[in-house]
Amino acid sequence: MREDRPLNWDHAASRQTAATALTAIAAARPHQLEARRLAQRSKLPFKAGLYRDSLLWRIEELGRSALDAYDRPDHVSGIVLTRATIETIAALNSLHLLVTRYSGGDVDRLDATLMSMLMGSRVREDRPESINVLNAIDKLTKAVPGFRPLYDELSEYAHPNDAGTASSYAVLDIVRLGATFNGRGEQFERRAWLLIECLATSLMLVQPLYRELLAAAPTFARLCDADGTGKPD
Q1: Among 223, 192, 140, which residue's Cα sits nearest to residue 9?
Q2: Angle subtended by helix axes 75-100 and 44-71, to nearest 10
Q3: How many CB atoms lie within 10 A of CB 148?
Q4: Per residue in 9-43, is it b (16+ CB within 10 Å) or e — as a string?
Q5: In the chain, pLDDT over 90 holds for what percent of residues?
Q6: What is the pLDDT of residues 178-233, one digit of tens each?
Q7: Would you say 63 and 25 are in contact if contact means Cβ atoms under 8 Å apart?
Q8: Tens of pLDDT along 112-139?
Q9: What pLDDT, on the 0 to 100 scale, is given for residue 2?
Q10: Are 36 and 146 in contact (CB under 8 A)?
């Protein structure tokens, strides 16, 4: 039987951090997008804005569902949802880098990247290839060192490996070659820590990224208009 060692952490504080962040994200979700107010010629600001705001809605839903799973506690489903939340935040970070670093000129590459972000698919031949989520995770890791190893650990639960099967649902008796199944399994505290710490830490990144994207939107629109691309039909 694997030992479930007590962890020295304040789960209530971490949960409150996640809940507070989710409340702010929910309040920030837009209900309309009017990109034409910023760009008169280019469609690229609309594409960037549509992806940005859709990501925010997705982050709120996934994060809220992950926190609900933590409270039940359904840790495996919560970890899978946390992993999906982090992937979406990584996509928001990639968009942030694309928009805030754009200085004009390379409009074809910009359009191709935005189309992969917004319309990408791994199964539809009539769509551009979607972005590589691991590349997005690695970009996020540059801002938050150590993030990729934690993401990889979350992935162990997302797949039917030991972490997401026997370790999560069974307490082993190796001597008798038996097991007792329940919702806690082994290493319960470790799973709880991994779920809520990763969720809380990643959600705290969302508001700064989103606010900076909103602030960069007017300059981005002017640059896109100056490039003279994406004229209305």
Answers
A1: 192
A2: 160
A3: 15
A4: eeeeebbebbbebbeebeeeeeeeeebeebbebbb
A5: 64
A6: 888 887 877 788 889 899 999 999 999 999 999 999 999 999 999 999 986 444 43
A7: yes
A8: 999 999 998 888 888 888 889 999 999 9
A9: 46
A10: no
**Token code pair at residue 205:** 């990144």
Please check the confidence at residue 7 and state whether its pLDDT lies above 70. Answer: no
pTM for this prediction: 0.90
* Residue 122, token pair as written in the block: 């791994």
Quick check: helix, strand or coil at residue 53?
Answer: helix
Separation CA 231–CA 106 (nearest Å): 16
Q: Residue 17 is encoded by which pair of tokens?
A: 């951090």
8 A C-beta contact, residue 122 and residue 167: no
CB distance 194 to 83 below 8 Å: no
Nearest to 28, CA basis, from 51, 50, 48, 57: 57
Stated length of the chain: 233
3-state secondary structure of 117: helix
Distances (CA, A) of 62 to 81, 107, 130, 156, 209: 6, 33, 20, 19, 17
The one-letter amino acid at 14: S
